[in-house]
Amino acid sequence: MLQDAHWAAGAACGFGKVAPDALFVEGAAQRDARAVCTGCPVRLECLADALDNRMDFGVWGGMTERERRALLRRRPEVSSWRAELVPAGELSMGAR
User: Fold this and answer.
1) What's the domain range around 34?
2) Per the count of CB atoms within 10 A, which of 6, 7, 88, 89 is most buried?
3) Do the domain assignments include residue 95?
4) Residue 20 belongs to a domain
5) pTM of the model
6) Which is higher by pLDDT, 95 or 69?
7) Helix or strand holding residue 92 (H, E)
8) Looking at per-residue confidence, does 7 or 80 come out higher?
9) Number of domains into which the chain is organized
10) What is the pLDDT of residues 19-78, one digit of tens each?
11) Is residue 81 part of a domain?
């Protein structure tokens, strides 16, 4: 599923930092879930992974499922969101 899983080690939500279910919410609770992503050093890698793997639920990279679906519809020509969103020199810098 994850193309380059080690980026997740640097995530603001990862490995016990946030309750596992906190990012898989609906409605108004999504605002709090999105706040976790603000300032996350691997936010774009997370978002790219969710878009490339068509994650169906939860907040990933600061975007809700609805927002990701809309982005995918607007940009069907993108074959790799990782290449589109994350400059090559910045890959996994947040995980260091």
Assistant:
1) 5-87
2) 7
3) no
4) yes
5) 0.81
6) 69
7) none
8) 80
9) 1
10) 878 999 998 899 999 999 998 999 999 999 999 999 999 999 999 999 999 999 999 999
11) yes
